[in-house]
């Protein structure tokens, strides 16, 4: 009886141990490896808020097209720009001063800049205008087995999946590293993808860089799922077995 209990305890201990293959990131990378980075421009989406700035050789000619932020410009913060920015409608367009309705959804910020500059130039409003377009409400949501799940805003034009997970404090020891789910909505189409963080095969995929409004889900591993039961840890299980063994030995006397 005691031998059986000892073997059970030993088995539980071995099963609970995680291997390197379950924990280490990018196990196939070798020292000195180099590869070119392919930057993929994000496209403007419905509900994005855009900051658009027009510049010209004659500054006065650009004033009617720019958001007026008032005299106390030193106290302007990003939230002010979000409130006064251009919200991309459900139809994928914005209403811009003088130019009217402009459809921008699906275009990159560079394409949007070129389009607005062409409309200003062709309409005779500004000669050789300079246009800057930025998405100022970019955010991603990280859920599951990370240290700080939540929704995070970012300003970068290209934010990698690694950086996004870093914003949430990295995966916990209980996060499944080879099955990270990404939920992405682009132009009204929702797609799902799974990424293996123990391999670098996905570095050249469309999911190396996150897009605004991506949802990243880190599923719990088997031991973590089992802790949701009444016996919520290996320590608890061993404690119960140890108590049972002690009780058995006392009653046997």
- The secondary-structure element order is HHEHHEEEHEEEEHEEEEHH
The helicity comes to: 25-40%
Secondary structure tally, helices: 8
Kindly report the spatial arrangement of strands forming the biggest sheet: 7-6-12-9-10
Q: Average pLDDT value?
A: 83
Distance between the termini: 15 Å
> Which fold name corresponds to the CATH topology of one domain?
wza like fold
The CATH homologous superfamily of one domain corresponds to: wza like domain
Radius of gyration: 27 Å
Highest-level CATH class of one domain: Alpha Beta
Q: Pick out the low-confidence regions.
A: none
**Can you name the CATH architecture of one domain?**
2-Layer Sandwich
Mind describing the biggest β-sheet? 5 strands, mixed
Q: What structural class should be given to the helix and strand makeup?
A: alpha+beta
- Tell me, what's the shape? elongated
Q: Quick one: how many beta strands? A: 12
Strand content: 15-25%
